[in-house]
Design brief:
By secondary structure, the protein is an alpha+beta fold. Among the domains are: about 10-70; about 165-195 and about 260-345, Lrp/AsnC effector binding domain/regulation of amino acid metabolism (RAM) domain (Alpha-Beta Plaits, 2-Layer Sandwich), CATH 3.30.70; about 205-250, Arc Repressor Mutant, subunit A, CATH 1.10.10. The chain is built from 14 helices and 14 strands. It has helices at about 10-20, 25-35, 40-50, 50-65, 90-105, 135-140, 145-150, 180-190, 205-215, 225-230, 235-245, 280-290, 315-330, 370-380; strands at about 70-75, 80-90, 110-115, 120-130, 150-155, 170, 175, 250-255, 265-275, 295-300, 305-315, 335-350, 355, 360. The longest helix has 16 residues, at about 315-330.
Length: about 375
């Protein structure tokens, strides 16, 4: 079987471009962009104790030759939004029509086609808190009775995108100095990471949302360009960026997409890990945070359950599953489940200014703006 046929050509090309520019300095710059953000190259130079001109030159090479993907990560909870995961086991014939109906919702979302523990759809929905209670009402319109009964809805914290320890990548051999058993060893160390469920509401206005809508797509876009698109002064826009997005924490982090492996040799997975003790869950979060596999993780609100997005070398998968089974047998973990993600079928709708109104806040209708046209297609195929 040709593994290249089941992965996105865009991911393959991106991996090849990243591989061509890898050296010690460029890895340090990529690491600093994640930790500091892409907007202040002088600060990155100071952090790395390098000549600012050298860093600027190197950064431009990285950006121009690879199209380095850097995205701002909004604090959805600070803006009155609920981060919700929707698991939908579906008959294969029902996947496309249901997916189209979810795609028509006028909310920020990411939709995955998944296989494994669940065959169907996994959707990450960003819903205004006051509209969340209408979600099941909307789902009843697009799902059959059986599908509605089988669905699962999880409210989670904002996803954490931990920094990747790039020092563990051998530039000589292009392999990672990381073994699957380190996941268990790091868990047994006893160190912990706690994910807060505290919700702090921040002030948000239309300009903030416009800036965010641009930076979640490309965090390297110049603020001057955004000011020109909005039709406001650069000074006013920078005030919003500094005092609203940064000081209020509306941008909580940056995501730098750095592929761990060649896409033909690895797979992407959604894992669920369930625990019966908070201590064990927090120790496992620490181990996940140190692993090279994890791109993001979150916690289900009010539950001892962790959701994680992992990219894993196929040769490591069986070893990792064995380690997780050992943690279950030892009583550290209650259960785990995982599903394979089809990278070619991911659908994304980012936050946009049209979703927000200065007077009423989030301008999302009770039916989430679901397309009647797509709704009729779903019903017709039921």
């Amino acid at each position: 079987m040709n593994l290249a046929s089941i992965v996105s050509s865009e991911h393959i090309e991106y991996f090849k471009k990243i591989s061509l520019i890898l050296d010690e300095t460029n890895l340090k710059i990529i690491d600093a962009i994640k930790k500091i953000g892409p907007r202040n190259l002088s600060r990155i130079a100071r952090y790395l104790r390098e000549d600012p001109k050298k860093i600027s030159y190197r950064y431009n090479i990285i950006k121009n030759k690879t199209g380095l993907i850097v995205r701002a990560l909004p604090s959805y909870s600070s803006m009155g939004l609920t981060n919700t995961l929707l698991f939908l086991p579906l008959d294969h014939r029902r996947v496309d029509p249901v997916k189209r109906s979810i795609e028509s919702m006028s909310i920020p979302k990411k939709i995955y086609r998944i296989y494994g523990n669940i065959n169907g759809i996994l959707a990450q929905l960003i819903i205004p808190s006051e509209r969340f209670f209408f979600l099941e009402e909307v789902l009843r319109k697009i799902l059959t009775d059986k599908e509605f009964e089988l669905k699962r809805i999880l409210n989670i914290t904002d996803f954490i995108f931990p920094p990747l320890d790039l020092s563990r990548l051998s530039l000589t051999y292009r392999i990672w100095d990381y073994m699957p058993n380190e996941l268990k060893n790091d868990f047994l160390e006893g160190n912990r990471i706690k994910l807060s469920e505290d919700l702090t509401r921040a002030y948000v206005d239309k300009i903030d949302i416009y800036i965010l809508s641009k930076l979640v797509e490309d965090a390297t876009i110049p603020l001057l360009k955004i000011a020109e698109e909005i039709g406001t002064s650069p000074a006013k826009l920078k005030y919003h960026f500094d005092n609203h997005l940064i000081k209020q924490g509306l941008i909580r982090d940056y995501y730098v997409y750095f592929p761990r492996y060649s896409p033909e040799l690895s797979g992407w997975f959604f894992f669920e890990f369930t625990f019966d003790k908070e201590d064990y869950m927090e120790r496992f979060l620490y181990a996940l945070n140190k692993s090279i596999y994890v791109h993001a993780f979150a916690k289900e609100l009010g539950k001892l359950r962790v959701i994680a997005l992992l990219e894993m070398f196929w040769g490591d998968l069986s070893d990792v599953l064995q380690i997780l089974s050992e943690l279950c047998v030892s009583g550290y973990m209650t259960d785990y489940k995982f599903s394979y993600i089809d990278l070619k079928s991911i659908s994304v709708t980012n936050i946009s200014p049209e979703m927000f109104d200065e007077k009423v806040g989030w301008n999302i209708p009770r039916d989430f703006g679901i397309s009647l046209k797509e709704h009729s297609k779903v019903i017709a195929r039921s």
